[in-house]
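User: Teach me something about this protein's shape.
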Amino acid sequence: MFDWNDLKYFLAVARHGSTIAAGKALGTSQSTVHRRLDELERKIGQALVTRQASGYRLTEFGTTLLPFAERIESAIADFSRRATDVEQDMKGVIRVTCPEPIIARMTQAGLIDRFHERHPHLRVEFITSDRYLDLSNGEVDIAFRSGDTDDELIGRKIADSVWAVYASKAYVERHGRPERIEDLSLHLLVGFDESLANHRAAKWLKEVAPEAKMPVRSNSVLGLVAAVKSGSGLGPLPTALGDAEPELIRVIGPIPQLARSWRLLTHPDIRRVPRIAAFFDYIVEQREAMKSILTG
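Assistant: First, the predicted structure itself:
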């Protein structure tokens, strides 16, 4: 097989009619043009040009191959442009949304630093919110979510979302601990406020302990953790957060009704954008590390 790079010497001679002019056009010497053209003809097995007093002319065989060489040149140019576009696409910001505690755990585990080391021209920007930011409208690029998801989005499961009921050691010393879910109605509880009334944990508490007193309500998971740690009451928490707090005791659970899958989601229109694909594929690659972060 001949060297594809030698085709540019053939094309330059065909266009300029001499090896001197071809060399100038290519920024190389006349001898290099001669040598590379001779090598191409040797590999192909037939002459492509013939030398005349007025310069070089294509042979019949060379004339036949010329349009094919031009198409290869055009394809290489297209390839180079696309490669440059991809390189440019690998610069910029990737906007990621996930619960605030997950950001700290991912950062502490070194996952984000390692991604930045692998892709030094990309930067992950976290956007936190206890509401679902809209991927379809471009509020963010990628989301870590558990629970129900929009069918329009595409994603991969990366871990399980597991919840249990926790209490502080101080609360247990003062009020004892429940033995069964039915005992929750006899205890003080902490839960979400009305802004998160549709959260599965809020619905579950309302179902299993509708008459229980709830002295503290929060609009965030971190708020629930703080309330349970303060001894204000029992509360459902993700096991990844509850088990990480030395002051807390898991008193009931895991709770099957609260279990969901953690998924990494994005919109299909941008899934193959290089910078989005780079982060998406990196997290999928790091699933084992993500399991300990998301599940505990």
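Now, about its shape. The first strand starts at residue 49 and ends at 52. The mean pLDDT is 87. If you'd like, I can walk through any region in more detail.
User: That's plenty for now, thanks!
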